[in-house]
Amino acid sequence: MKDLIKRIVSASAVLFVSAAVLSGFPAGTLKASAGEVYDIYVGKERVETSNCKDILGNGVFSYEPETSTLTINGNYGYESAELISSNIEDLTVNVIGDSELKGYFYFYKDTTITGTGKLSLSTSDSLNAITLYGGTRLTIMDADLDISGCNAISGSIRGTQDIYISGSYINAHGKEAAICDLNTVSIFRCDITKPAYCFWGEGGIYEADMTTYAKDVRMIPSYDLWIDENKVNADNCHDILDNGIFSYDPVQKMLTISGSFDHPMDQELIYSSEKGLIINVTEDSEIPGYTVLHEDTVITGKGVFITGTGTSSGNSITAIANHNCKLTIDNTRLMALGHVGIGTTTGSIDIYNSDVLAAGSEQAFAFAPDSFNIYDGNLSFPSPYTVGNNTIYDGGSKAAKMVAIERLKVKGDINGDGIINVTDLSLAAAYVKGKRSLNEDQESRADISGDGKITITDISIIAAHIKGKKAIV
């Protein structure tokens, strides 16, 4: 700890006296005739108004005082350099481009590291790459870090600093330890893949013996989504089950299903607490098993999705259960069979322009009061029917065990997939040429002009719609 610093400025400036605690410079923003100076050093250069847009003059570091954000974009430093020393409360370090830095960081106040770029930070084996002082909390949020030193991330005095890691890639390498001497380590939406067996919490991240600090730690983002009891993470999201059927795009929050496989009917297929999940069925897919949803979810796609646990009397599992959230079925074809086909009494269901068949040994649908809606479609079975507070009735007092919903048939959408495209154009052309037949519904949708015939005129109208020249209305 350095002694009390006294600085006397000329009468045209400001007189101040401040204690430098641990960091060697005073807390707060200091005002002088040259502008403002801030409690952060980069490459031992004090950040101030005159240099904050390009602190070192190399385009790598900039500071935005209004948001307390230090931006990093580029390479700089040498191994034994004090690269960043910050006493800024709630500093954000935003890495916007891949950056390789040599040196070490000191943080004396709560700090967040984030950004779309990868930060590689290394220092000598005798120094810590990132050291936390006082009661500092370091948050690593949606970041990509590769850190190495004597200790990669360390507290200065064990038991007073915390680290919170969420949704991040981290490779931490330490000659002595990767992450150590901390009060608590909290990890969310991440999987530790190295060491294969480890423990974390009080102190740091440990090997399987729970006493030895791990020297090499690898973390990857993970998601609140499980497929066949496999948690989805950054390593497996491109092919979750290694069978080419399930993939997940974390940016779009889209789970893609593209194919069928033999899955046990009474076992969980999809479990999700992922906010805003989209299940996109890109091709016809028949997969037994049940789905549990705890956040608003959309099921969509051009493929038919057949799923569930069956309708036998001994079955007590709902095929697709949405708990305290909204299930939206949008422009797709879905068949769900279970004890209850689709829904729970705490969830809501909206169906848009979709063909849906739900069947259950107890009832086809379940939903919260006044929470079932059909748009651009009709409930075609049973007939008559009644939409009650929590289910659909068969016209009497019994819950309907099978419910069919059909999308509205649109002129030009000959194959009934909800889209007017070249497939429909080809069907109309083949019919006119006598190369294929259409059923009654298809003929009705192909007769755009409404003259009772399908001719070259109808083909031209469909083509104009596809090209965007004139929409079919």
UniProtKB/TrEMBL annotation:
It holds the Pfam family Dockerin_1. It comes from the Bacteria. GO terms for molecular function: hydrolase activity, hydrolyzing O-glycosyl compounds. Residues 1-19 form the signal peptide. InterPro entries: Dockerin_1_rpt (IPR002105), Dockerin_dom (IPR016134), Dockerin_dom_sf (IPR036439), EF_Hand_1_Ca_BS (IPR018247). SUPFAM superfamilies: Type I dockerin domain (SSF63446). Gene3D superfamilies: Dockerin domain. Keywords: Signal. GO terms for biological process: polysaccharide catabolic process. Residues 407-473 form the Dockerin domain. This is Dockerin domain-containing protein. It comes from Ruminococcus albus (strain ATCC 27210 / DSM 20455 / JCM 14654 / NCDO 2250 / 7). The lineage of its organism: Bacteria, Bacillati, Bacillota, Clostridia, Eubacteriales.
